[in-house]
Amino acid sequence: MKRQTRTRAAIATAAALVAAGTVTVGVSTAGPESKSTKPTKAQIAALFDGWNAALATGDAETVADRYASDAVLLPTVSPEIRTDRAGIVDYFEHFLANKPQGKKIRTVVNVLDSNSAIDAGLYEFTLTDPETGEKREVEARYTYEYEKRGGQWLIVNHHSSVLPAAG
């Protein structure tokens, strides 16, 4: 009986050591590989430049490629909330007719972690009337929420609204 108890105790101890070793190996292996580098505020702010360059192509599909498939767009010049690619493409097909040229006036970036960030602030668009060629400036507030998915930074939420008059 004593011999069986010792054998069981030895097996239990060996199993515990193997399990502890496996956990330790898993933790030490996962440590450095699971940590992603957080982007800088400048890197997140520069994502607007890529979006603005997509606008300059005049192609709504190219602009929509900057958005996640489940993104939400609350656009500047439409009362309709866009919640899928077709809706986002539809909005930009109309918006791009005005040949928008955007520039940031003020930006506030909040890097949440290695895979998510928010860029909010004020921007200005020069829009060209497609019929008259007349240009006008529109100032707006914006918020872009970005997530890194599949190694690519995508817009998951974009809100833009005309800047109210001071008062």
How would you explain this protein's 3D organization?
The protein is of the alpha+beta class. It has five helices and five strands; from the N terminus they run H-H-H-H-E-H-E-E-E-E. Strand 2 and strand 3 form a beta hairpin. It is globular and about 50 Å long. It starts with a helix and ends in a 5-residue tail after the last strand. 19% of the residues are buried. About 18% of the residues have low confidence.
The helix/strand class is alpha+beta
* Secondary structure tally, helices: 5
Low-confidence residue ranges: 5-34
Shape: globular
List keywords for this structure.
36% strand, 5-stranded mixed beta sheet, 167 residues, single chain, 5 strands, 38% helix
Short description:
The chain is α+β, with helices and mostly antiparallel strands and 167 residues long. It is built from five helices and five strands, in the order ααααβαββββ.
SSE diagram, text form:
Elements: H1 2-34, H2 41-45, H3 47-56, H4 60-64, E1 67-74, H5 85-95, E2 101-113, E3 116-128, E4 135-149, E5 152-162
Parallel strand pairs: 1-5
Antiparallel strand pairs: 2-3, 3-4, 4-5
